[in-house]
What does this fold into?
Amino acid sequence: MKILVTGCCGFIGSNFVRYMLNKYPDYELYNLDALTYAGNLDNLKGVDSGRYHFVHGSIWDEAAVTELLKNVDGVINFAAESHVDRSIENSRPFLDTNVIGLQVLLDAALKAKVQRFVHVSTDEVYGSLETGDGKFTETTPFDPNSPYAASKAAGDLLIKAFYKTFGFPVITVRPSNNYGPYQYPEKFIPLMITNLLTGKPVPVYGQGTNVRDWLYVGDNCKAIDLVFHKGREGQSYNIGGDSERKNLEILHKVMEIMNESGAAKITGEAAFKYVKDRPGHDFRYALDNAKITAELGWRPEKKIEDGLVDTINWYIDNEWWWQSLKKRLAAESEGFWK
It folds into this structure.
């Protein structure tokens, strides 16, 4: 099988490429990536060049997309602008990629009669749970609260329209917060790890009481693989980690692990600082996995405690990968990421 995987020089996509090439020795993957700030060729350093092909370009480049779709059996779309804080600063790139880019990709895939199209969305389209009760299901109405989430919700509706109008074989997946190797260090967990490794305090929004459902990226890759091969056309699937934690709980666990190993260069109360809360900050995300478990037999395998240890060790062992990225973040921002 030949698959077009878009945006795979980013975090989740690069992990997915490695996973698929390892699992399916007869598959070829074509990665179309625009190499925006979070796209990094080093994320796929050393992969099998005989079965992996990188193409520098954007999903809103109709000519490039049309050419690539001539020889593939399916599409998995990871391409997205995905950082909430950046969407608050400037929402235009999020609409360009997450809506218009998706529209170009869908139109071209429809014309090429692609056999299967999986779109990677987010749990943030559902909005916020304001109490500790309940979980989002696939039928929960959309209620996005950030420009990023709104752009992804618009993309999901476009996916649905292509299925209803054209019978196009699309499927949407909505993972919860991913973590693991190769995650850009502006995101919460790698920001924590790399700040503690370099002796800088970790910024925490508000009082650190916001709750997220954490999913190890390897488990997410397995779920997307299952959905691509066995999921029902026209459906959406939640992919939750079953690991709800307050942000402050995650921070304390990371600090504990790194303090025990002696990796942290800053400890105690000096290791973090509370900062002004994000505008419109969602309180809690939690996904109900009943559908994907019942239909495809998937459930998360990696416990959050084990996943954090593995992730911390990866960042300790791969300082070459993140040091230059940290310098770039520090240069561009006097705020949260610094």
